[in-house]
Design a protein that fits this description.
The chain is an all-alpha fold. The chain has one domain. It has 19 helices and 2 strands. It has helices spanning about 1-15, 15-60, 65-75, 90-95, 115-120, 130-145, 150-155, 155-160, 165-190, 205-230, 235-265, 270-280, 290-305, 315-355, 360-370, 375-400, 405-410, 425-430, 430-455, and strands spanning about 75-80, 100. Strands 1-2 form a two-stranded antiparallel sheet. Helix 10 (about 205-230) packs across helix 11 (about 235-265). The longest helix has about 45 residues, at about 15-60. The chain is elongated and about 110 Å long. Keywords: Membrane, Transmembrane, Transmembrane helix. Pfam families: ABC2_membrane_2, DUF3526.
Length: about 450
């Protein structure tokens, strides 16, 4: 009987124009998003490659009086694009991708130019992930909202029951057909983007992305069938499903962001910079001024080389002092960076735990993490860039202090920034809660549908 119901539903779906419109709409949206994302990826990759070559050539041909003057001139480094970053660009539209490297100042990531305000205020950029997270569930709801109620209104439900079918057979047959259509539609949508990005490094991430989006879409299919079975009519079913979509995709994400910001407000950038400048001048604890630190350094260096004045030193004391200031400044920046990072993580924790009540927040966290565009990847890059910046400045100050390589040879042998993102296993360990949320909602949806099968109205 299950097979008969499934075949019957299959033929009904094929004759239903709603399926054709849904399939066409989803594929058109996915195609536009995939084409636009891949084009933007190639453009950005070309721009970053050009900028990297230009700044490297500029640095190697630099004419400076001494290495510390070169450190003041500085250079730029750029965050490498991952091949999956244009499937889900996550926070990259807001966090920036370039960092200036120079002596005495530790810059933040340069903020990218603002896009069209109306687009970003609503849903953000149109990417394949945006289509699958926001519009795909809505299309599935429109596909399933009338699946069971039309059987009641058309009178075919009683005919099926007379022939020996039960509501459980009917709902399970419908679920099998719609889940099959959902899987085919999902794979078609994702195949528009992933084949060009499939590398050995990306295959595990692509696999978990497909698995995550499959669970996410199945939740909406099962909920659509459940409400179609328990609602009085198709209008009520559609209204309830649209309310669920609005709650999960509009209200709860905004509420989570506003709650996190209200509970853990971030200090302004001018306030932080004022605190950093004060700590550098008077000490981290306020009782260690710069002059006292310089005096201790001078005394220590003179004792080390057993001389009575800096003029007698075989090394450049000014360069040693500058590097000591760099080391202390680094400690100050690390202190306030850790404080800011702690507040941001607390803000994110609100959304992280609210994902247990919202599959959209769960799949968004999973998608951004696997595509390398979440906060964790951004912070990991910033840490790597900061470490490179410190090595870069230290090498120049040491060359000035100890008379190592000078001039063009020093600049040509300067370290090139290389960034290695976190391993996939490390990323997956952080995703246990959103993954558990998706599984929980999938089980809830299955349970609700089974319950509706026992008590569905005739």
């Amino acid at each position: 009987m299950f097979r008969t119901i499934a075949i019957k539903e299959w033929h009904m779906v094929l004759r239903n124009r709603t399926m054709a419109v849904t399939l066409l709409s989803a594929l058109i949206l996915s195609g536009i998003a995939a084409a636009g994302s891949r084009l933007l990826y190639r453009q950005e990759q070309q721009q970053r490659d050009t900028a990297n070559r230009q700044f490297r050539q500029q640095w190697e041909q630099l004419r400076a009086d001494d290495p510390h003057s070169a450190a003041h001139f500085g250079t730029y480094i750029f965050k490498p694009l991952t091949s999956l970053s244009r499937f889900d660009n996550g926070l990259e539209s807001f966090t920036g991708n370039s960092l200036r490297v120079e002596a005495h100042v530790q810059h933040q990531m340069a903020t990218p130019p603002l896009g069209p305000g109306d687009v970003y205020l609503r849903f953000g950029a149109l990417t394949p992930a945006t289509v699958l997270q926001l519009f795909f569930p809505l299309l599935l709801f429109f596909l399933c909202f009338n699946s069971y109620t039309q059987e009641k209104t058309s009178g075919t439900l009683r005919l099926l029951l007379i022939q020996g079918a039960t509501p459980r057979h009917i709902l399970r047959g419908k679920a099998a057909v719609y889940l099959g259509f959902m899987t085919a539609l999902l794979l078609l949508s994702m195949l528009l983007y992933f084949p060009a990005m499939a590398t050995i490094h990306n295959l595990p991430r692509i696999f978990f992305l497909v698995l995550g989006y499959g669970c996410y879409a199945a939740i909406f299919v099962l909920l659509g069938l459940w409400l179609s079975a328990v609602a009085r009519n198709a209008g009520q079913s559609l209204l309830l499903l649209c309310s669920i979509w609005l709650c999960w995709h509009i209200l709860l994400p905004r509420l989570a962001a506003a709650t996190g910001e209200a509970l853990y407000p971030l200090p302004s950038q001018p306030y932080l910079q004022e605190k950093i400048d004060q700590a550098i001048k008077t000490g981290i604890d306020g009782n260690d001024p710069r002059d006292a630190r310089t005096a201790r350094l001078e005394k220590s260096i003179l004792q080390q080389y057993k001389v009575s004045s800096p003029d007698q030193l075989p090394v450049n004391f000014d360069a040693l002092r500058l590097q000591a200031d760099e080391n202390y400044t680094q400690r100050v920046y690390e202190k306030y960076a850790a404080m800011t990072d702690s507040l941001i993580r607390r803000q994110n924790s609100v959304q992280h735990y609210l994902a247990a009540a919202d599959p959209y927040l769960a799949i968004r966290s999973i998608s951004m993490a696997l595509c390398g565009t979440d906060y964790e990847h951004q912070y990991h890059f910033y840490q790597a860039a900061g470490a490179y910046r410190n090595r870069f400045i230290r090498r120049l100050n040491q060359a000035m202090a100890y008379g190592d390589e000078q001039g063009q040879q020093l600049y040509q042998h300067a370290e090139t920034f290389q960034y290695k993102p976190p391993a996939t296993a490390q990323v997956l360990r952080r995703l246990w809660l959103p993954a558990l949320s998706l599984l929980l909602w999938l089980l809830i949806s299955i349970s609700l549908l089974n319950r509706a099968a026992r008590h569905a109205s005739i």
